[in-house]
Amino acid sequence: MLRRWLTRSFNVEDDEVAPVVAGFSMFFLLFAGYFMLRPVRETMGITGGVDNLQWLFTGTFVATLAAMPLFGWIAARVRRRRILHWVFGFFASNLVVFALGFQAWPDNVWLARAFYIWLSVFNLIALSVAWSVLVDVFAVGQAKRLFALMAAGLSAGGLVGPLLGVILVGPIGHSGLLFLSALLLIASAFAARLVQRWRDARPIPDFAAAGREKPLGGSPFAGATDVLRSPYLLGIALFVLLLASVSTFLYFEQARLVEATFPLKTDQTRVFGTIDVIVQTLAILSQLFLTGRLAQRMGVGVLLVAVPLATAAGFLWLALAPTFAVLAVVMVARRAGEYAFVRPGREMLYTVVAPEAKYKAKNFNDTVVYRGADAVSGWVKTGVDLLAQQPAIAALLGALIALAWAATGAGLARAQGRYAQTVTAVDPISDAAVPLAGTSDKG
Asked: Among 31, 75, 226, 442, whose CB has the most other CB atoms within 10 angstroms?
């Protein structure tokens, strides 16, 4: 019954149902575990003082830089198909350590700050690696049809996770939530394995498919060097930088207005949880019924440009009416649009790059570039607020950044289309054309 519904409603071929369900499950389990803990992290951020958020963002960037050589070492020496399992296993063990720490020192401020930073690093690395598995397994044409459908698992997990947190935090406490999140992370790794087994049974006769049993090799810092040497990957890095900057401007404004509007911490947590529920509901509806159809009919460009343009309009609205109600609408639209359109479109850009770039360069862009932009834009936002004393100034600057974000997305969509049409991949060193893994729409 599920097979018939997917094939008829979402243009999924009969042979693709199993990996789509596994990919959906991988994302669902990952985000259910993450979103159980996210409202707690947001409250911890405000507890330390809104004026100190830039320090937490800077700490997150430093921690991300420290984590990159470790990830690069794993990616260079572990078989490509096992990278996700090593990374998820490492993070699950971290969750167990934090759970034990919260049991022993439940009110330790520094432990709480360390957890805020750790969760911010974990989220980006784990999600990036999960997407790496999909861009490594699915063809370009399949990505347009299937990525949004599988990404709906993110939104479904984002809906279920906060509900689990609310229901279970009383009986099992914060430590129990961390233990449960670790179990969900292990289950997510198992679902990723099912996706890989599906491709194993249907090998693509090219270098990329044959190389999944081998380590990628190279330096632990290869992701950074590949991005710096490739105009295409640099373009994606710029896109991520602008995306993160826009997100940070809105995040700081959200923290300021929530603190001013809702003085009680319990109310703040409810507000963050409510925003999460609305965002994920809108995202999952769009992912199921809109994103894939838009990508097939209008191309990747519409996914990469529509949300930045809408965000620019939202910033202009916020400049004219700097209230929590307006901010909530803009924040929900931006976040739901990112989950439903920007993220699947951004991942499609990597379907036309060589295998090493799908893991190393992609993870560098998704983590170091993203968190670096967080840290820098956090200080910029703080500086603008101090100098201008007018929230409208920061909103206007955010609108300009969003317009640059839209222009970068349009350029990347054109470049991705050229590589896909010529059935070549982007060499991460020189942007030269090389045989592309699985450009056909057939699995």
From this structure: 31
Q: Find the distance separating the first CA and the last CA of the chain, reported in whole Å.
A: 22
Give the span between the Cα atoms of 214 and 210, in whole angstroms: 8
61 burial (CB, 10 Å; 0-12 / 13-18 / 19+) is buried
- The structure tokens listed for 62 are 């430093």
Residue 425, strand partner residues = 434
Map out the domains of the chain as residue ranges: 15-435
- Quote the CA–CA distance of 296 and 442 in Å, as a whole number: 15
Q: Please, what CATH class does the domain formed by 15-435 belong to?
A: mainly alpha
Rounded Cα–Cα distance for residues 203 and 259 (Å):
54
The answer to whether the CB of 188 falls within 8 A of the CB of 92 is: no
Q: What is the Cα–Cα distance from 387 to 373, expressed in whole angstroms?
A: 21
How many alpha carbons fall within 13 Å on the CB side of residue 421? 7
Q: pTM of the entire structure?
A: 0.78
Tally Cβ neighbours within 10 Å of residue 154.
Answer: 29
Q: What are the phi and psi torsion angles at 24 (to 5°)?
A: -60, -45
Q: Which is nearest to 304 in space by CA: 335, 349, 336, 346?
A: 346
